[in-house]
Amino acid sequence: LKNVTLPSAMTSIPVKMFSYCGAIEELEIPNNISSFGKMKSSPIEGMVSLKKITIPEGIKKTYMCFFLNCSNLRTVEFQGVTEIAANTFMQCTAVRELILPSSLTKYADTTQKMLPKLICFKGTEEQWNTVIPEARRNAWAAAGTIVVCNYNASEAGTPAKITAQPKSATFAKGSAVEDLTVSVAADADMQFIYSW
């Protein structure tokens, strides 16, 4: 069992529901989920094969150990979160693409090895500089993270292929750097921030 789609009638995911389910690579969570485990008891803790997850609009805040030991998680999309807590990404070091909503008002995670190659932020550059602490922005810049502000996948039109990565960039366990592709709207409000 590699892909799991939860039923749309679900409104909560109990503590440790999928903890240490080692084979699941993709988990689809319905939009009406508003309860997702609790601090230090995430329903996805230890899902070492999980590669992609979308956290739906109903989940407004993360907590410590939200993605604990999701060591192969590559793509994370938050659709409606307002706060990302400290140590949300504890022992989650393979993330290469992070999609953040414009609703984000607080980013407190300081996990040192959570250094994605691409961050798509649906808010403005001004919001980005206000919400993301300077130390975190600097750490991502030093790691070669590319930030796209005003990202809107639903209006995607012009593909922007990222083909150049800094020489020092590697993903977890020394694997080869891969190109990332993201579709972005080609309009005057689109901002690309290249932080090498």
Commentary on this structure:
- Helix content is 9%, strand content 24%.
- It is built from two helices and 14 strands.
- It has an eight-stranded mixed beta sheet, with no helix packed on it.
- The model is unreliable at 157-196 (pLDDT under 50).
- The chain is globular and about 40 Å long.
- The chain is mostly beta strands and 196 residues long.
- It starts with a strand and ends with a strand.
- The chain has helices at residues 125-131, 134-143; strands at residues 3-5, 12-13, 26-28, 35-36, 52-55, 75-78, 83-84, 97-100, 106-107, 118-121, 146-149, 158-162, 180-184, 191-194.
Q: Which helices and strands, and how do they pair?
A:
Elements: E1 3-5, E2 12-13, E3 26-28, E4 35-36, E5 52-55, E6 75-78, E7 83-84, E8 97-100, E9 106-107, E10 118-121, H1 125-131, H2 134-143, E11 146-149, E12 158-162, E13 180-184, E14 191-194
Short description:
The protein contains two helices and 14 strands. It is mainly β and 196 residues long.
Question: What descriptors fit this protein?
Answer:
196 residues; mainly beta; eight-stranded mixed beta sheet; two-stranded parallel ribbon; 14 strands; 9% helix; globular; disordered C terminus
Task: Tell me the Rg in angstroms.
Answer: 16 Å
**Count of DSSP H/I helices:** 2
Q: Helix amount, in percent?
A: under 10%
Regions with little confidence, pLDDT below 50 for 5+ residues: 157-196
The helix-and-strand class reads: mainly beta
Number of strands: 14
In this structure, how is the largest beta sheet organized? 8 strands, mixed
Taken as a percent bin, the fraction of beta residues is 15-25%
Name the average pLDDT. Answer: 81
Strand order of the largest sheet: 1-3-5-6-8-10-11-14
Order of helices and strands: EEEEEEEEEEHHEEEE
- Global outline: globular
Counting copies of identical and different chains, the oligomeric state is single chain
